[in-house]
Structure formats: C-alpha cells, structure tokens
Design a protein that fits this description.
alpha+beta, Aminopeptidase, 4 helices, Acyl_CoA_acyltransferase, N-acetyltransferase domain-containing protein, acyltransferase activity, transferring groups other than amino-acyl groups
C-alpha cells in the first residue's frame, strides 16, 4: 500500500474522510466535497490518502509555507481507521510527506499530536521528530 496524493475528490472520498475525521476529534466538522476540492487545488497543500481493498483507510494533510527564513511544512489530520491501526499505515503516510519535503528543500516539519496518542508519539520519535519546548499560542476564531 502506497499512499496517494488526492487530486480528485469523489463523494466516496468525502464520506471516507468525514468518517476518519470523526475518529480523530471528538466534535468533528463535516467537510464538503467543495471544501476538499479546494484543499487539493491549493498549491502548498497535499492531501495523502491510504487505500486498502475496502477503500480509504487513512489520511494525512501536509501544508507547505514559505517564510523569509525558510520553507516549512505543517502536518495535520493524521488518522487511520481504527480497524487498520498498528499496520504501519500512519508511518507510510508520514514517510510519503517526508520524502516529498526532502525532495523540495523543506527545512523544517512541524506537527502536533494529542497527548493521549502514545502510539503516534512513538511513531513520530522513531522518524526523527523531537518534542519542542515552545510557547505555542492559538487564537480560535471559530470559538463563540
């Protein structure tokens, strides 16, 4: 199984992604076909999907951005269907993004992970990611 970069978004892919997102966050937002199509059309965004015979079983979003000091990547929304976890799918998704980043002169890659996802933390450390001691701030513009 080699993760593929999504180029076209079918209704089946939309349903699979929304199912995966419901396993990632406690209050998922339903993403439309139009939103996903816009995401995959963005020049700096790559949506990787992992497929098995049953269809889409995992995903990862990688966003590349350029600053005066460097080109960086942010990895978001890494999730594998619970029936397919511990089979190396998340590793293959992440390695696909890392390979692309290395071949495109990306200097740094950041990601965040829920503190309870210990298996994910082990994976990221095994791939060379280091936990940073930083004051990371967020302003939630959707928060009421």
């Amino acid at each position: 199984m080699r993760p593929l970069q999504a180029k076209e978004i079918s209704q089946g892919i939309v349903g699979a992604i929304n199912e995966l997102l419901s396993q990632l966050v406690s209050t998922p937002r339903v993403v439309s076909q139009e939103e996903l199509a816009n995401i995959v059309r963005q020049q700096g965004t790559r949506l990787y999907l992992a497929y098995e015979k049953s269809g889409v079983v995992g995903m990862l979003t990688a966003v590349v951005y350029h600053c005066p000091t460097r080109t960086s990547m942010m990895i978001e929304d890494v999730v594998v269907d619970e029936e397919f976890r511990r089979l190396g799918i998340a590793k293959r998704l992440t390695m696909t993004a890392l390979d692309w980043a290395r071949s495109h002169d990306v200097a740094t890659i950041d990601l965040t992970s829920n503190p309870t996802r210990t298996a994910a933390h082990e994976l990221y450390r095994s791939l060379g990611f280091e936990l940073r001691e930083t004051g990371c701030y967020r302003l939630d513009l959707w928060k009421p």
